[in-house]
Each structure stands twice: as structure tokens, then as C-alpha cells.
Amino acid sequence: MKSTLSRTLIAFLIAATLALMSAHTAMAASARIKDIVDIEGVRENQLVGYGLVVGLNGTGDSLNNSPFTKQSLQSMLERLGVNTAGQNVRTANVAAVMVTANLPPFSTQGSRMDVSVAALGDSKSLQGGTLLVTPLLGADGEVYAIAQGSVLINGFNATGDSASIIAGVPTTGRISSGALIEREIDFKLGAQHTLRLALRNPDLTTARRVALSINDFIGVPTAVPEDPATVRITLPRGFNGNIVDLLTDIEQLVVQTDQTAKIVIDENSGIIVMGKDVKVSSVAVAQSNLTVTIAENPTVVQPAPLSNGVTAVQPSTQLNVNQSDTALAVIDDSITLQELVDGLNALGITPRDLIAILQAIKANGALQAEIEVL
């Protein structure tokens, strides 16, 4: 009797352990819906404006080299009742700048947002400057915000008679809460009856899983996958609330995401990123390194005593060629990502050589993944 209970308990513990391991594996590749989709209409809007930064300590634009700064300064002074037409204005304390900002979704009139400032002319630094009233326009040409305030920069510029030090970028800065929103975007989310969810990483499988998860939770066919990047949701009849309530209920649902096997390569920096589903068919790989070293060691040749010769320089070149060959290494069929990395590292190759090898394996048809070169 005790033996039977012991075997039953052991079997139960094994089954529970396997279930936990399976659940952990599934959750490792899962994410909340709110983390993998963008909601239609819930978006930022880009704003841009042109303005002047004043109060610089002689690091502003040269008015002779930046005519737009001079024209803007004269126009601003005229609006303030100061006539400078025909006058030779000389100042190095003003800089023309471009002001950019992202209007947050559902921002109300009177709220504030951050803005970025970047010099447009030949200003050396915006340190200590103050941005004057600058309208920020949207793509439709309408003014949505007004920016003004002290510019905070992340770099500095120190110049002496024979040396200078520049750290960071002193010609760009930021104004925290520097813009006052004057116009709202007319979009009433709560009045919508149907919306689209845009997947940030489009995939057919993920889109279908998102729709199934929503429908299982609501209990009626509310979500429909339209394409790899879009899932349309419709407010079901009899739902106790509006579309905002529906989005609040479903955004916490956990979905197992899926992506195509891909290798991302940045040839400039030599960075390689491979996904977990990358597979390689059986293939043999060999890599050869060729190193050529050239060293110049010129020698000075003196003429013989009491001769009419002159001192000359005789060139001397040392040329060395070193070629190291690596034997063929066989990569087995359908290996894991870790085994692929270990096998390629065993060849003693550099990341840039690895890029060439991966591209050659792809050209051979043995790499079952997409290669994206940045």
C-alpha cells in the first residue's frame, strides 16, 4: 500500500514539475496586449517651429553669415516698437533655432510638454540662452503650442587662445515643460464603436492569437485579424461600458508572440543579432585569414670621407605575408541557436568574418532565416 502511494506521489510531482516547466517556457515568450500593439487614434503628433534664443555670452550667430537671424531679429524688434531698418546691427548674443516637440495624445488645452531646441546658424553654444515665444505648428500648418523658456544643454564649449574643448553637443538643448498647448486634437476615443489594433511587430500567428485571446475573454466574436499587422475590435452589443472600458479589459491579456526567424546585421559596427528560431541545414564551413604587414625602415647613408658625396636616405621595406587556414567544420542539420553560435565561435573568427559566413550560408540555401542588413 505504501509502495503504491509513493509511486503515485512521485508521478504527481513529476507531472507538476513538467507542467510548471511548460508554463514557464510558454510565459517566457509571452507579452501583454498593451505592450505589443498600438491603438488607432492613440498617437503623438510632431510639431516644429522657428525661433530665437537670446542671452548668449557671445556664442550666438554671426549676423553677416546668418542673414535669417538678422532678419528675424529686426522683425521681432519692429513688432516690439523698435525700428532698426537700415541700421548695422551687431550682436553675438542671438541664435536662430529650430524647436521640435511631440504633442502627446489627448493633451488638453493649457497643459505643458517638453521641447527640443537646435541651433540653425553658426552659433557655438546655446548655454545660458532663453528661447523667446515660438509658435509650434503641425503638419496641417495650424499652431498647436507656444514654446518659451531657458534652454538646458548637455554639453559645453570652452575656448582659449590656442586650444579649445568641446564636450557633448552644446548647440542642442531641451526645455522641460517649455511649451504650453493651445489647441487640442479632436478625437473622442470613448465615442468609437470599432477600432484597429496595430501590431508593432507584424505577424500572422501573433495577430490571430491576439484575436482569439480577446474573443475568449469577452465570450463573443469581438476581434477579427485583418492582416499580419491589424486586428479590428468592435464594441459588442450589450457590453457594459464604452470602447475605453473594453480596451482596459483586454490590454492586460497575455498573448504568446511569434516572429519569423531573422538575423539582423549591422556591418558598420559588426553587431549580429540572431533570433531563437534560426535553423541551419547541414553545411561545411571553412575560413581563411590573410594578413599582409608592410614596415618601412629607411636608413641614412653617409658619403665616404673627403668625397664630394651627400648624405642620402636609403629606403628599406619589410614585407610579411601570413596566411592561416582553418579546416572545414561541419554544422549539423537543424541545430539550435546556441549550438550554431558555439560552432561558429569554435572556428576562431571575428564578428565581421561571421557576417560573411552567415551571408554565404544563406546564399547556399542552408540558412532557414531572413537576413536583414542595417
From TrEMBL:
This is Flagellar P-ring protein. Pfam families: FlgI. It is found in: Bacterial flagellum basal body. The keyword Signal applies. Belongs to the FlgI family. The keyword Iron-sulfur does not apply. It comes from Devosia algicola. The basal body constitutes a major portion of the flagellar organelle and consists of four rings (L,P,S, and M) mounted on a central rod. HAMAP family: FlgI.
